[in-house]
Design goal:
The complex is a heterodimer of chains A (363) and B (342). With 363 residues, chain A is α/β, with parallel strands linked by helices. Chain A has helices spanning 2-11, 32-40, 105-112, 134-138, 156-166, 172-181, 197-209, 227-244, 255-261, 279-288, 299-310, 330-339, 354-362; strands at 54-65, 79-90, 94-98, 120-125, 128-129, 141-144, 215-219, 247-251, 264-269, 272-278, 289-296, 313-317, 320-326, 344-351. Chain A has two domains: 33-47 and 287-353, YebC, transcriptional regulation domain (Alpha-Beta Plaits, 2-Layer Sandwich); 54-283, P-loop containing nucleotide triphosphate hydrolases (Rossmann fold, 3-Layer(aba) Sandwich), CATH 3.40.50. In chain A, helix 8 (227-244) links the parallel strand 7 (215-219) and strand 8 (247-251). Chain B has ten helices and three strands. In chain B, helix 8 (230-256) crosses helix 9. The longest helix of chain B has 34 residues, at 129-162. The chains are: A alpha/beta (363), B mainly alpha (342). The complex binds adenosine-5'-triphosphate (ATP) and magnesium ion. Magnesium ion is lined by residues 105-106, 146, 219 of chain A.
Amino acid sequence: MQEFSELGKTTSPVASGGDVFPELNPAPEQPDDEFAEVCAEDPAPEEEEREIDPYLVIKGVSKVFRKGAARLDKSKPGIVALDGVSLEVGKGEIFGLLGPNGAGKSTLIKVVTGLVIPDGGSVTLGGLDFKADKEAFMSKVGAQIETPVFFNKRSGWWNLKYLADLQGGLPDQRIKDIVEIVGLTERINSRVGTYSMGMRQRLGLAQAIMNKPELLVLDEPINGLDPDGIAQVRDLIRRLRDDYGTTVLFSSHILNEMQTLCDRVAFISKGKLVAVKTKKQIARGLGETTVLTVVCDDPKRAASLITSAYGFRTKVQGERLFVEVRNYNVAKINRKLVENGIEVESFTVKSRTLEEMYRELTR
Amino acid sequence: MKGFVTAFSLESKKIFSSKGFWIFIVAILVLCLMVTLSFKMIGDLMEGMDDSGLTGSGADAGQLVEVYRQQLDEYLQQVESGQIKQKPGDTTEMTLRNSIAICEYCIEHGIDVNSLVAIGSISSFNMTSGDFVNMMSQVSFTFVCILAIVISARTLAGEIDDGTMRMQLTRPIKRYVLLLAKQGAVFVAGLTVAVAFMAAFMAGGALFFEGTATDVVLVDAYQNVAVINPYAAILLTFLFFAVELATMIQFTMFIGSFVNKTGALAIPLVTYLFVDTIALLLYNTGLPWIGLFTNLNWASGLTTAGAPVRGMSIYTMMAVTAVWFAGMTAVNYTVFEKRDLK
Ligand SMILES: Nc1ncnc2c1ncn2[C@@H]1O[C@H](COP(=O)(O)OP(=O)(O)OP(=O)(O)O)[C@@H](O)[C@H]1O
Ligand SMILES: [Mg+2]
């Protein structure tokens, strides 16, 4: 994790605040500044998103992985995978988890599905506490976590049947239908050991949804799928939500998918939840933050003009002026400068992408 | 409860439908057939030689008891004078005292001492069918234990290592129920195979050997003697085997709680096969605490030599095993309950 962030700092201009102000490498201001601003503007009271009706409630979940003797001696350092993560997912919501490798997404998902025992905190589903009643809790959950692993020497069908029986049994016809849905009918009787990665992923999806779960938990479900597969999974998730009111918690590194699919996205970094954004907020966040690069004869004066008139953050470097514009018609800024007698040579506008937003939030 | 039954039957199905399991069974059978044939051959070669009975000599109980008493006196004198230092593995005294007790029992009840055999032994290379069943059960039980160790290692450490445990644990079933089902399934599979083997050996015994079986004499560390029917002895051996099986399953999973798949297989196997030999060497170098580790061979506590460590009896062996079993069970369930899956 440490390495990841170092890596990000040196190679990615965004991570050092560079894309916003590309030439100012040493990032004179605290790096959190920008992030704090982005977050602070979130709960714009008049634009409050619809209240969610909390279904999956994660409260203060922490997890430190320890090895060997450190397991007993809590003063020894371990790997902090989750650090007091709390979030609420509404019923029927498609909720995404975003974050760099090692951020703790899979760990969070494993806590929700009972594979990792958290050091502290609680997970409840519709009021059912995981610790108090795992059976009732998990009977409502279907999960696919990372690359699914099956009994390789047995057929896909054997595996599905086995897992179905382990949760109380399902009619063969239902399993057949599910196999049809994930598009594995032709190969369902071959040994899983002979499956391609995408086929395993599809089988993993089949076992996750065969029980008609109320909460579907998917950790990188489209990893390794072909474009058709990705589209199918997307449709499937939508259909499950629309037709059955399934709540979906899923993680992916494919930002476009997250953007199109999720009602809300949580950004996780270094085991901490750094922000939760609704689809609207993301869209708005992307549209509203624009980086303006102005080349003019007197950038210093232009900067103070803009700051005093609009309160936008500015940076001056040589002939250039960088302005972080939020939710404002940039043409008006241009006019303002010209009206004040500033000679504008060039005026470039660049909108933020989700990737940039992701980098800012999770660095 | 329903969860347990489902998981148990799934685990059993998994065991009995695995190819490796059947290959192992066939291998054991072939091995047993070979052992049978060689005994048959040796028996034929030794036709007419008298190697029968507890002592291998023709002497009666009255003569023997005198000899043993004299030997015991001499031994005790040597110990007293410091000529012999009694090591933890030195069971001479116990052997003599128990032998005397058996002879006295035979004299009292008018039994021919040479018609008896110790539990787990055979009376002669000229095996009777009862001897055969007795001996082969012992041999095959050892292999069934090895089979159970292999399955146990695969079913817990193996499934955690290869990741298939993850899928199972995301089902609505409590962890301890799943573990109980897995252990129960291996245990019941082991017992089933053992019973099937015994049935096969009874049939084989009737086919290859003749004669009735020899009665079995039991003696504990307090010189209590009992003579039982050979089939009762086989049943007793079977009960002891059940304990051994359960303990080795628990032990394998105990090791599997701390090491990976390979270690979870190798350590219990080596322990099971060699611990008695290693312990024997250690007793004789004078390490009595080794007695805390090798207590599974309960039958040895009912033979003249008694428990492997001087001063222990079958009852202490049972107690030590029970403590081990309880401790390992507690650790297994606690660790599994708290374990983080990859
Ligand atoms: N079983 C484990 N033992 C020790 N450390 C672990 C274990 N599982 C995860 N970790 C550590 O916890 C941290 C979070 O890992 P996690 O798998 O949750 O990340 P992630 O967000 O899913 O990353 P990715 O995008 O690569 O899937 C990492 O630093 C990882 O090394
Ligand atoms: Mg992950």
